[in-house]
Amino acid sequence: MPLEILNSLMIGCFQILAPASQLSVRLRIPGLMVALVMVAGHDAIAVQSLYGFDSDESYRIGDWLTADGSQDAVGLGNYDIVKDGSAAFGIGAIEFPVGASSFGALEIPTSSNLGTSFTLSVMANELGNNFSRLFSSYNGGPVGADEFVFDIDPSEVTGFGVRTIINGQRVERDLSFVDTSYHHFAMTYDNGAVQLYYDGQPLGAAESVPSGNVSLAQNLRFGEDYPPTSLTNESFEGFADDVLVYDRALTSNEIANLHSLGAAEFFGVSAPPEPEPLPPPNIGSRIEVFVDRFLVADSGNASLSLHPPTAQEISLQLNGPHETTTSTYFTALRDEDNKVRLYYRGNVDAGEATLMAISDDGINFTRPELNVYEEDGSTANHIVWAGPQSHNLSPFIDTNPNATADAKWKALGGTGQMYAMKSPDGIHWELMQQEPLDITGAFDSQNTAMWDAEAGLYRSFSRVWIGGKRAIQMSTSEDFINWTTPEPIIYDVPLEHFYTNAIVQLPGAEGVLVGFPMRLDPSRTNQPSPGQTGVSDAVMITSRDGVNWDREFTEPWIPEGFDTTRSNMPAWGIIETGEDEWSTYSTEKYRLSDNRLRRLAFRPYGMASMSAGEELGWFTSPTFVFEGDRLLLNFQTSQDGFVAVEIRDEQGMPIPGFELSAMQPLSGDSLWEEVSWGSSSVSTLLGQPIQLYFELVDADLFALQFDAVPESGVVGDYNNDGLVGIADYTLWRNNLGSTAALANDPIGGTIGTNQYNQWKESFGQSLSTVTSDSHQVPEPPLVIPAVASLFMLTVVTAKCHVKRGSC
């Protein structure tokens, strides 16, 4: 039967209402409406998505209507899926925290084409009582014809209670609802007719707007705008449930039923299956630092502690040629010749310039004669560039393997507009293009960039103003010219003025981004500075992805002291200045005649720690997998303190051989000390999900690493202590029949007689070929013919242990 005929039929309790290209069958039963959607023809269909959150986790927000994963929402920023009685219907809701400085949002896939008829609705418990976005594709400036807004203002500070802006026209309604209850908000669009709803009832009559297809420049988000206007006071704060985008304008009766029944019952759908648990993260052999809670699942009497640097000597008194009271924005790095370079702002007759100082040790700096830029009739100066980019030019060495020889060094520079620059040596610079980069931001500070090898792209961190405060935004690029739209970095404490960012990849632990932004309080002054007010210090922020940032520590990493405003500005860069020392630098006396740079020293990977006092403390890690043959710890204890660690399985049970009782607790001060559980080797746990359990007394644990054992080079030295002796035999025996990796075993594979013979032939040898172990070479356990099973080998070996105590 043709669809055109079907569309006009009423059959029993079925009512069929749809165009020929989309047949919507609604089964009417008292108290229930079930929607079935059948598609015919080839016309494009607008999006249908419903998010009820009952079976979701933070990493999967499933669509209930399509239910095949194609319309699962993308969670952004600061949000949580809660199942604690906060839902309007069912058990799940999404929470956007009240008072957080960061935005949270859901991005709804394929929602940029809403068509000529649609419905948007949500059950919302707006706890911030703020002007709040519900649905939005807006990103700043006048709302364009290809943008959309649907928002609420519970207290009507903006002059309306509910509003939508669609096809360039506003539709507003008065409404005040300051409370802590759920309310249902909906809007429908039917080819130019807009109707707003509150708690299932229409707010006045429908209003006309320009008709036609609603096509947006980007997908809808729920909860916030797109950058750069995200992170403003339009953020939704509170709980949301039944977030719906539907490809037809529902009637007033349908909206009333949707409100009263809830979307699941209204549409006759249920939550999608619960998502598969995420596999445990593989930390590989990375250095993991305790600057955040990435490896802290639970704890008792142990907590994260910040370790500020210690002030050292003045590295550079800024009274040399072309240096001024406003010389600042320092970059510190080691070049290809292992020299430490400082880049910073200076002045020439034509304006601002970029200067360079150099050092062998990162402590004592000189001003080289570079012979690059002529000033006052001479090139015998330390100027590498002069121009508008010199306000804040910040170089880095590009480790991208595809970087060309003339662009092994790169930099960003400029204020108001940002430029990309390149150099073969960090001294001879040129613009990568004459035009500024097509990227939005303020840029009137030190803007930094780096190559992220793990992600395979460049990251830039630059200044943006958000809600009247200086903030940080991130953008990415594959070629250093074309950059993504910047996203404000996200953290979950109130926004403060971050004047700079000083974000670096932590040396040796490049998966961790650490920033030392200068924090400014412009409302205070403790020492007058010509032309400016304010007090500044520096804090530490960390991230694992560049977007979501941890503000575990809100106290200063560099305290303000009694100094001028805009001082205490950390340089961009961390320098190794000794085997047990890292350094960075910080400005002092900015805008005064003794403007200067001071070196700050701290322990490698020692910016923060898991710490316990005199009373026993403990913490457990989440489940993870690793790569490596040994566990190394970076720690410090008092004379009576210690650190102990146990390896557990994913259920939290101690793994035999790796209990606390099998380990000799560690004490003292060590940058990297290997943990020993006697003859048990962590290499036997490769690929196995594990947890770590730590106990600490009067101790700081700064970092850990699962690392490959560097081989001594003596075949048969299975424990890698430089001597082939009894301990290697014991290690061989304990791993007999397994495929564990033994150090200095070129044979590999299943451990058996071949490894014994190899050890026997090398017995007594050492790196210095001195035979210092006079023990008799033990004989192997009963050697089973090659045709015997590995099981029999294990049984016979076990009997040998029982009868003789040892084999």
Describe the structure in your own words.
The chain is mainly β and about 800 residues long. Helices cover about 5% and strands about 35% of the residues. It has 6 helices and 53 strands. Strands 5, 7, 8, 11, 16, 17, 18, 19 and 22 form a 9-stranded antiparallel sheet that branches. The longest helix has 15 residues, at about 790-805.
Helix content range: under 10%
Q: Main β-sheet: number of strands, strand sense, barrel status?
A: 9 strands, antiparallel
Mean pLDDT: 87
Structural class: mainly beta
| Model regions low in confidence, pLDDT < 50 over at least 5 residues | 1-45, 770-775, 780-807
Shape: globular
Distance between the termini: 86 Å
Radius of gyration from CA coordinates: 33 Å
Number of helices, where a helix is a run of at least 4 consecutive DSSP H or I residues: 6
Number of strands: 53
How large is the share of residues in beta strands? Answer: 25-35%
